[in-house]
Amino acid sequence: MHLNIKKTKCLIVEDDQFKMEGIRTHLKEMFGDQIDIQECQARASAVALLEENVFDLAIIDMSIHSHEPKAGAGSPVPLSSGGLEVLFEINHRGTDTDCIILTQYPDIEIESLPIPVDQAKNEILQKFDIVVAGCIRYVENENKWKEDLNLILEQL
Fold first, then answer.
1. Residue 69 — pLDDT band, cuts 50, 70, 90?
2. What is the pLDDT of residue 39?
3. Angstrom distance (rounded) from CA 56 to CA 34
4. Is the pLDDT assigned to residue 35 strictly greater than 80?
5. What are the residues whose beta carbons fall under 8 Å from the beta carbon of 128, sequence distance 6 or more?
6. Of 16, 34, 108, 150, which residue is 20 to 30 A from 102 by alpha carbon distance?
7. Phi, psi of 100, deg, nearest 5
8. CB 152 within 8 Å of CB 136
9. Buried b / exposed e across 132-149, counting CB within 10 Å, b at 16+?
10. Whole-model pTM above 0.90?
């Protein structure tokens, strides 16, 4: 008997290694070996991965760097809207990638205005016609973000 079991392909865009580890660990606990995770820390590397892959799920930090830090490549520039640019790239490709924003800040900068995390999903839909599965505030040493992520994933 042949079972058609598809692994979930997930992209995590996060420049904080501690947060990255927490997200990865939580997803592995949820999905077990049924998830294939690719990670990057910057807008440029996220765009490169999106050119080569189609993802089922993307978990994106909104404030990321322009490019990965590499010796001799110059310092990466912090981009408060870098994650939003990754959302635009996913939307432009027309894939069925479910996107979840996970940020440690109480607000997300959208068109130079701070938008509270709990209002960002609707703001992104209204301003850019991009559907985001959810926006979550990550607070270190708290588990609420995990509960919020679980709820969103259960609805997908």
1. low
2. 96
3. 12
4. yes
5. 87, 88, 91
6. 34
7. -125, 130
8. yes
9. bbbbbbbeeeeeebbebb
10. no
